[in-house]
Structure formats: C-alpha cells, structure tokens
Amino acid sequence: MVGKLTEIQIDELLERQIVGRIGCSINNKIYVVPISYAYEGNSIYAHTYEGMKIDAMRANPEVCFEVDDYGDMANWQSVIAWGRYEEITDPADRVAAIQILLHRNLPMRSSETTHIGKHWPFYADNETIDGIVFRIVITEKNGRYESYSNSAKISG
User: Fold this and answer.
1) What's 141's domain CATH number?
2) From CA 117, how far away is CA 86, in angstroms rounded?
C-alpha cells in the first residue's frame, strides 16, 4: 500500500531521524547535501561551517528539506518540507539552538562509523561556538509511505 503520512506521522519521522538532506539553489544549480539536525517547534536546527551550502542559502533562503526511513524497498517513509533559512546570530539564541542539537544528537547510539568523537563541533558547556548555527523555519511539509507486509527480504 502506498499512501500519505498524517501530520502526526510527519512530525514523528522528523523527530526520530538525525540526518536529512537540504536542497538549495545557487547560480541556477541545485545543491543537495546531508546534514545532522534536530527538529523542534516546526523548525530544523543545524550547525555547520562556511561553504557552498551556506553560500547558497544566504543567496536564496528558500530551501527544501528531505528525511526518510527505509526498512526495505517496499517499506519506507519519506517527508519533504519547504521553508526559509535563518542564520542564528544572537549569542543567547545560538546557545539555545546548540542545546536543542545536543539534546537530540548526543543520546544517539555510537558505532565504529557513526559516533561523536573529537571532531564533534561543540560541547554542552561551550560559551563560544565556532561555525554557523541556523534553522529552517518550515512553511509546508508532506509525507508519503509504502508498506507491504509480504515484501521479499534480501539477506546479506
């Protein structure tokens, strides 16, 4: 069965995942890049450094955000959200946004390939935070799913 996610299911998927993809545009080129994020209060929060993604969002703050959860090719959920990029520059607001990211990302399970190590960009007690903290204020979102209980499983 293929269908549309409810508003509650859309929010649950956005809250459950920690990696999504931002789609932005600069110089008539579409740029899609994965980011770690936290979802709270109808906004996507993230931290990054200067680069093509920031250049694109500063030039054209209207962006798209995608997140998905795949069990297999016949069992998946996907959310697409549209919104506006906002750089968070006020020191108190930056710390608050970092706290949102920390509370969402630090509890995650570590593995050999995915873990918070020496390159994690900030600690809970940071007063000064390098890089760029931003949010995408969501203006529209929708979600789809596919679900088949009898789908073939690929063993590997």
Assistant:
1) 2.30.110.10
2) 28
